[in-house]
Amino acid sequence: MRFFARAPGKVIITGEHFVVHDSYALAGAINRAATVEARANDSMEIFSRNLALTASYPRKIPSSLAPIAEAAAATLDFLSLKKKVKLVIDSDIPAGSGLGSSSAVAVASVAAIFALAGEEPVKQKLVELAMISERMVHGNPSGIDPSVSSYGGVLLFRKGKAPDLLRLGRPVEFVVAYSGIVRKTSRLIKKVSSMKETLPNLFKALASSSTTLSKIAASSLTSGDLQTLGSILNFYHMILGRLGASSKVLDSMVEAALSERCLGAKLTGAGGGGCVIALPEPSASTNVLSNLSKISKEAFVARLPVEGVRIWQK
Ligand code: MEV
Fold first, then answer.
1. Buried/exposed code over 224-240 (b: 16+ C-beta within 10 A; e: otherwise)
2. Mean pLDDT per 10-residue section of the chain, whose length is 314 residues
Protein backbone atom coordinates (compact mmCIF):
# COMPACT_ATOMS: atom_id res chain seq x y z
CA MET A 1 0.00 0.00 0.00
CA ARG A 2 1.24 3.52 -0.85
CA PHE A 3 0.21 6.65 1.04
CA PHE A 4 0.09 10.16 -0.43
CA ALA A 5 -0.51 13.75 0.64
CA ARG A 6 -0.83 16.85 -1.52
CA ALA A 7 -0.52 20.36 -0.04
CA PRO A 8 -0.96 23.65 -1.93
CA GLY A 9 1.39 26.62 -2.19
CA LYS A 10 0.16 30.10 -1.37
CA VAL A 11 0.05 33.77 -2.21
CA ILE A 12 0.12 36.43 0.49
CA ILE A 13 -2.60 38.89 -0.50
CA THR A 14 -1.83 41.51 2.18
CA GLY A 15 0.32 41.88 5.29
CA GLU A 16 3.55 39.97 4.57
CA HIS A 17 6.47 40.94 6.81
CA PHE A 18 4.20 42.84 9.23
CA VAL A 19 2.68 39.44 10.10
CA VAL A 20 6.05 38.40 11.56
CA HIS A 21 5.56 41.31 14.02
CA ASP A 22 2.08 40.21 15.17
CA SER A 23 -0.10 42.00 12.59
CA TYR A 24 -2.91 40.23 10.75
CA ALA A 25 -2.32 39.10 7.15
CA LEU A 26 -4.45 37.69 4.37
CA ALA A 27 -3.32 34.73 2.24
CA GLY A 28 -4.79 32.14 -0.09
CA ALA A 29 -3.93 28.64 -1.27
CA ILE A 30 -3.16 28.32 -4.99
CA ASN A 31 -3.36 25.66 -7.69
CA ARG A 32 0.32 24.71 -7.37
CA ALA A 33 1.21 21.99 -4.90
CA ALA A 34 3.70 19.55 -3.41
CA THR A 35 2.87 15.83 -3.42
CA VAL A 36 4.62 13.42 -1.06
CA GLU A 37 4.43 9.64 -1.01
CA ALA A 38 5.22 7.82 2.25
CA ARG A 39 5.99 4.11 2.30
CA ALA A 40 7.33 1.71 4.89
CA ASN A 41 11.03 1.09 4.19
CA ASP A 42 14.09 -0.75 5.59
CA SER A 43 15.75 2.56 6.47
CA MET A 44 14.78 6.23 6.86
CA GLU A 45 15.02 7.90 3.45
CA ILE A 46 13.88 11.07 1.68
CA PHE A 47 14.06 11.48 -2.07
CA SER A 48 13.31 14.85 -3.72
CA ARG A 49 12.53 14.49 -7.43
CA ASN A 50 12.93 18.26 -7.96
CA LEU A 51 16.33 18.49 -6.32
CA ALA A 52 17.39 15.00 -7.53
CA LEU A 53 18.71 14.46 -3.98
CA THR A 54 18.44 11.62 -1.47
CA ALA A 55 18.80 11.73 2.30
CA SER A 56 19.43 8.38 4.02
CA TYR A 57 19.53 9.08 7.68
CA PRO A 58 21.04 9.30 10.18
CA ARG A 59 24.17 8.85 7.97
CA LYS A 60 23.78 11.20 4.99
CA ILE A 61 21.44 14.19 5.12
CA PRO A 62 22.06 16.96 2.51
CA SER A 63 21.45 20.36 4.12
CA SER A 64 18.48 21.13 1.83
CA LEU A 65 16.67 18.00 3.08
CA ALA A 66 17.63 18.36 6.77
CA PRO A 67 14.52 20.45 7.65
CA ILE A 68 12.17 17.78 6.24
CA ALA A 69 14.18 15.03 7.97
CA GLU A 70 13.67 16.85 11.32
CA ALA A 71 9.93 17.35 10.75
CA ALA A 72 9.54 13.71 9.66
CA ALA A 73 11.37 12.44 12.76
CA ALA A 74 9.19 14.61 15.02
CA THR A 75 6.05 13.32 13.27
CA LEU A 76 7.04 9.66 13.75
CA ASP A 77 7.73 10.49 17.39
CA PHE A 78 4.40 12.26 17.86
CA LEU A 79 2.55 9.31 16.30
CA SER A 80 4.68 6.77 18.25
CA LEU A 81 5.21 5.07 14.89
CA LYS A 82 8.09 2.60 15.11
CA LYS A 83 8.29 1.99 11.31
CA LYS A 84 11.09 3.32 9.09
CA VAL A 85 9.74 5.46 6.28
CA LYS A 86 10.71 6.54 2.79
CA LEU A 87 9.34 9.91 1.58
CA VAL A 88 9.27 10.76 -2.13
CA ILE A 89 8.74 14.47 -2.80
CA ASP A 90 7.45 16.04 -5.99
CA SER A 91 6.46 19.69 -6.34
CA ASP A 92 5.34 22.05 -9.09
CA ILE A 93 5.94 25.16 -6.94
CA PRO A 94 9.19 26.92 -7.90
CA ALA A 95 11.54 26.88 -4.87
CA GLY A 96 12.53 30.28 -3.44
CA SER A 97 9.79 32.05 -5.42
CA GLY A 98 7.65 33.25 -2.49
CA LEU A 99 4.87 30.79 -3.29
CA GLY A 100 5.29 28.67 -0.16
CA SER A 101 7.19 25.76 -1.69
CA SER A 102 9.01 24.75 1.53
CA SER A 103 5.77 24.86 3.55
CA ALA A 104 3.83 22.82 1.03
CA VAL A 105 6.57 20.17 1.05
CA ALA A 106 6.70 20.15 4.87
CA VAL A 107 2.91 19.93 5.32
CA ALA A 108 2.58 17.20 2.66
CA SER A 109 5.49 15.21 4.20
CA VAL A 110 4.00 15.32 7.68
CA ALA A 111 0.50 14.52 6.37
CA ALA A 112 1.78 11.56 4.29
CA ILE A 113 3.29 10.06 7.48
CA PHE A 114 -0.09 10.51 9.23
CA ALA A 115 -1.68 8.64 6.30
CA LEU A 116 0.86 5.81 6.63
CA ALA A 117 0.05 5.60 10.34
CA GLY A 118 -3.68 5.39 9.54
CA GLU A 119 -4.29 8.64 11.46
CA GLU A 120 -6.61 11.42 10.29
CA PRO A 121 -4.45 14.56 10.54
CA VAL A 122 -5.68 17.52 12.59
CA LYS A 123 -4.84 20.64 10.54
CA GLN A 124 -3.27 22.63 13.37
CA LYS A 125 -1.07 19.66 14.35
CA LEU A 126 0.23 19.51 10.76
CA VAL A 127 1.09 23.21 10.99
CA GLU A 128 2.94 22.69 14.29
CA LEU A 129 5.01 19.80 12.91
CA ALA A 130 5.69 21.57 9.59
CA MET A 131 6.93 24.59 11.58
CA ILE A 132 9.90 22.49 12.74
CA SER A 133 11.06 22.46 9.12
CA GLU A 134 9.98 26.07 8.44
CA ARG A 135 12.03 27.48 11.34
CA MET A 136 15.12 25.72 9.99
CA VAL A 137 14.49 27.11 6.49
CA HIS A 138 13.37 30.70 7.27
CA GLY A 139 14.69 31.54 10.76
CA ASN A 140 11.74 33.42 12.24
CA PRO A 141 8.63 32.70 10.15
CA SER A 142 5.13 33.68 11.28
CA GLY A 143 3.53 30.33 10.39
CA ILE A 144 1.24 31.80 7.73
CA ASP A 145 2.67 29.62 4.92
CA PRO A 146 2.14 26.19 6.55
CA SER A 147 -1.29 27.36 7.80
CA VAL A 148 -2.41 28.09 4.23
CA SER A 149 -0.93 24.79 2.97
CA SER A 150 -2.77 22.90 5.68
CA TYR A 151 -6.16 24.66 5.85
CA GLY A 152 -6.40 25.81 2.21
CA GLY A 153 -8.92 28.49 1.16
CA VAL A 154 -8.31 32.13 2.06
CA LEU A 155 -7.18 32.86 5.62
CA LEU A 156 -7.07 35.93 7.82
CA PHE A 157 -4.10 34.98 9.94
CA ARG A 158 -2.36 36.16 13.08
CA LYS A 159 0.75 34.50 14.49
CA GLY A 160 0.01 31.98 17.24
CA LYS A 161 -3.78 31.98 16.65
CA ALA A 162 -6.03 29.56 14.77
CA PRO A 163 -6.72 31.25 11.40
CA ASP A 164 -10.11 32.61 10.26
CA LEU A 165 -11.23 30.88 7.07
CA LEU A 166 -13.02 33.37 4.81
CA ARG A 167 -16.17 32.59 2.89
CA LEU A 168 -15.63 34.32 -0.46
CA GLY A 169 -18.57 36.16 -2.05
CA ARG A 170 -17.45 34.52 -5.32
CA PRO A 171 -14.24 32.92 -6.60
CA VAL A 172 -11.51 35.46 -7.31
CA GLU A 173 -8.72 35.28 -9.88
CA PHE A 174 -5.21 36.61 -9.40
CA VAL A 175 -2.48 36.51 -12.00
CA VAL A 176 0.74 35.24 -10.42
CA ALA A 177 3.98 36.12 -12.22
CA TYR A 178 7.40 34.76 -11.27
CA SER A 179 10.44 36.98 -11.84
CA GLY A 180 12.76 33.95 -11.99
CA ILE A 181 14.85 35.51 -9.22
CA VAL A 182 15.38 33.15 -6.28
CA ARG A 183 15.73 34.82 -2.88
CA LYS A 184 16.03 33.91 0.78
CA THR A 185 13.06 34.71 3.02
CA SER A 186 15.20 34.82 6.19
CA ARG A 187 17.44 37.56 4.69
CA LEU A 188 14.42 39.67 3.69
CA ILE A 189 12.73 39.24 7.08
CA LYS A 190 15.93 40.62 8.67
CA LYS A 191 16.17 43.49 6.18
CA VAL A 192 12.56 44.63 6.67
CA SER A 193 12.71 44.11 10.45
CA SER A 194 15.70 46.47 10.71
CA MET A 195 13.29 49.43 10.46
CA LYS A 196 12.04 48.37 13.87
CA GLU A 197 15.40 49.56 15.24
CA THR A 198 15.77 52.75 13.18
CA LEU A 199 12.17 54.05 13.20
CA PRO A 200 10.40 52.02 15.92
CA ASN A 201 7.31 54.23 16.25
CA LEU A 202 6.69 54.45 12.51
CA PHE A 203 7.20 50.69 12.17
CA LYS A 204 4.70 50.05 14.98
CA ALA A 205 2.17 52.40 13.38
CA LEU A 206 2.59 50.70 9.98
CA ALA A 207 2.17 47.26 11.53
CA SER A 208 -1.09 48.46 13.05
CA SER A 209 -2.18 49.94 9.67
CA SER A 210 -1.39 46.59 8.09
CA THR A 211 -3.83 44.86 10.44
CA THR A 212 -6.53 47.42 9.56
CA LEU A 213 -5.87 47.05 5.82
CA SER A 214 -5.78 43.25 5.95
CA LYS A 215 -9.15 43.22 7.71
CA ILE A 216 -10.64 45.60 5.11
CA ALA A 217 -9.13 43.45 2.34
CA ALA A 218 -10.74 40.37 3.92
CA SER A 219 -14.18 42.08 3.97
CA SER A 220 -13.66 43.17 0.34
CA LEU A 221 -13.06 39.57 -0.65
CA THR A 222 -16.08 38.27 1.21
CA SER A 223 -18.34 40.98 -0.27
CA GLY A 224 -16.76 40.78 -3.76
CA ASP A 225 -15.60 44.44 -3.68
CA LEU A 226 -12.56 44.00 -5.91
CA GLN A 227 -11.99 47.77 -6.43
CA THR A 228 -11.22 48.24 -2.75
CA LEU A 229 -9.03 45.16 -2.67
CA GLY A 230 -7.07 46.39 -5.70
CA SER A 231 -6.41 49.79 -4.08
CA ILE A 232 -5.04 48.10 -0.99
CA LEU A 233 -2.68 45.91 -3.07
CA ASN A 234 -1.15 48.97 -4.79
CA PHE A 235 -0.49 50.69 -1.46
CA TYR A 236 1.15 47.57 -0.04
CA HIS A 237 3.52 47.35 -2.99
CA MET A 238 4.88 50.86 -2.33
CA ILE A 239 5.18 50.40 1.42
CA LEU A 240 6.93 47.04 1.06
CA GLY A 241 9.24 48.67 -1.47
CA ARG A 242 10.08 51.46 1.00
CA LEU A 243 10.96 48.76 3.53
CA GLY A 244 13.42 47.18 1.08
CA ALA A 245 11.34 44.21 -0.08
CA SER A 246 10.87 45.25 -3.71
CA SER A 247 13.35 45.45 -6.61
CA LYS A 248 13.55 47.10 -10.04
CA VAL A 249 12.32 43.88 -11.64
CA LEU A 250 9.32 43.56 -9.32
CA ASP A 251 8.47 47.26 -9.77
CA SER A 252 8.45 46.84 -13.56
CA MET A 253 6.28 43.77 -13.29
CA VAL A 254 3.77 45.69 -11.19
CA GLU A 255 3.94 48.57 -13.69
CA ALA A 256 3.27 46.16 -16.59
CA ALA A 257 0.38 44.51 -14.75
CA LEU A 258 -1.28 47.88 -14.14
CA SER A 259 -1.03 48.92 -17.81
CA GLU A 260 -4.34 47.33 -18.77
CA ARG A 261 -7.55 46.30 -16.98
CA CYS A 262 -5.88 45.57 -13.65
CA LEU A 263 -7.27 46.76 -10.31
CA GLY A 264 -4.12 46.32 -8.25
CA ALA A 265 -0.76 44.58 -8.12
CA LYS A 266 2.01 43.98 -5.61
CA LEU A 267 4.93 41.78 -4.70
CA THR A 268 3.84 38.72 -2.72
CA GLY A 269 5.67 36.94 0.10
CA ALA A 270 9.11 38.02 1.22
CA GLY A 271 9.94 39.92 -2.01
CA GLY A 272 13.50 40.70 -3.16
CA GLY A 273 12.72 38.56 -6.22
CA GLY A 274 10.06 35.92 -6.31
CA CYS A 275 6.60 36.82 -7.54
CA VAL A 276 4.03 39.54 -7.99
CA ILE A 277 0.27 39.08 -7.83
CA ALA A 278 -2.13 41.13 -9.93
CA LEU A 279 -5.89 41.46 -9.51
CA PRO A 280 -7.54 41.75 -12.95
CA GLU A 281 -10.84 43.52 -13.57
CA PRO A 282 -13.67 40.99 -13.91
CA SER A 283 -13.10 38.86 -17.06
CA ALA A 284 -9.72 40.51 -17.79
CA SER A 285 -7.45 37.73 -16.48
CA THR A 286 -6.29 36.87 -20.02
CA ASN A 287 -5.23 40.49 -20.73
CA VAL A 288 -3.24 40.78 -17.50
CA LEU A 289 -1.77 37.30 -17.94
CA SER A 290 -0.60 38.15 -21.44
CA ASN A 291 1.07 41.42 -20.30
CA LEU A 292 2.85 39.71 -17.44
CA SER A 293 3.86 36.63 -19.45
CA LYS A 294 6.00 38.85 -21.71
CA ILE A 295 8.26 39.97 -18.87
CA SER A 296 8.25 37.10 -16.39
CA LYS A 297 9.81 33.67 -16.24
CA GLU A 298 6.40 32.12 -15.74
CA ALA A 299 2.88 33.45 -15.20
CA PHE A 300 -0.40 31.74 -14.44
CA VAL A 301 -3.93 32.42 -13.21
CA ALA A 302 -4.67 31.38 -9.62
CA ARG A 303 -8.39 31.00 -9.00
CA LEU A 304 -9.23 31.09 -5.27
CA PRO A 305 -10.38 29.27 -3.18
CA VAL A 306 -8.35 26.06 -3.44
CA GLU A 307 -8.59 23.14 -0.98
CA GLY A 308 -5.93 22.53 1.68
CA VAL A 309 -3.90 19.39 2.31
CA ARG A 310 -5.46 16.13 1.15
CA ILE A 311 -4.39 12.54 1.85
CA TRP A 312 -5.16 9.30 0.00
CA GLN A 313 -3.85 5.78 -0.49
CA LYS A 314 -3.58 3.30 -3.36
C1 MEV B 1 6.57 34.73 3.61
O2 MEV B 1 5.65 34.03 2.80
C3 MEV B 1 5.88 35.84 4.34
C4 MEV B 1 6.72 36.59 5.34
O5 MEV B 1 5.83 37.47 6.02
C6 MEV B 1 7.41 35.68 6.32
C7 MEV B 1 6.44 34.98 7.26
O8 MEV B 1 5.36 35.47 7.55
O9 MEV B 1 6.81 33.88 7.72
C10 MEV B 1 7.78 37.45 4.65
1. eebeebbbbbbebbebb
2. 96 98 98 97 95 90 96 97 96 95 98 97 97 95 98 98 94 98 94 95 98 98 97 98 97 98 98 97 97 97 98 95
Instruction: Give how far Cα 40 sits from Cα of 37, 129, 173, 263, Å.
Output: 10, 20, 40, 50
Of how many residues is the chain composed? Answer: 314
pTM of the full structure: 0.97
Q: Which atom of ligand 1 is nearest to the CA of 10?
A: 2
143 CA → ligand 1 middle, Å: 8
- Cross-strand pairs, 27: 12, 155
Residue nearest to atom 9 of ligand 1 (CA): 141
For residue 141, the ligand 1 atom closest to its alpha carbon is: 9
Provide the pLDDT for residue 50: 93
Q: Quick one: which atom of ligand 1 is closest to the CA of 20?
A: 8
The answer to whether the CB of 69 is under 6 A from ligand 1 is no
Q: Quote the pLDDT of residue 57.
A: 84
- Outline where DSSP puts E strands in the chain: 3-14, 25-41, 44-48, 53-57, 84-91, 154-157, 164-165, 172-178, 262-268, 275-280, 298-304, 310-313
Distance, in Å, from the CA atom of 16 to the CA atom of 19, rounded to the nearest integer, reads: 6
Asked if 298 contacts 9 with a C-beta cutoff of 8 angstroms, the reply is no
The answer to whether residues 24 and 15 touch, using CB atoms and an 8 Å cutoff, is: yes
Ligand 1 pocket check for 185: Cβ under 6 Å: yes
Domains of the chain are: 3-165 (3.30.230.10), 172-304 (3.30.70.890)
pLDDT at residue 198, rounded to an integer: 96
Q: What is the C-alpha separation between 213 and 275, in angstroms, rounded?
A: 21
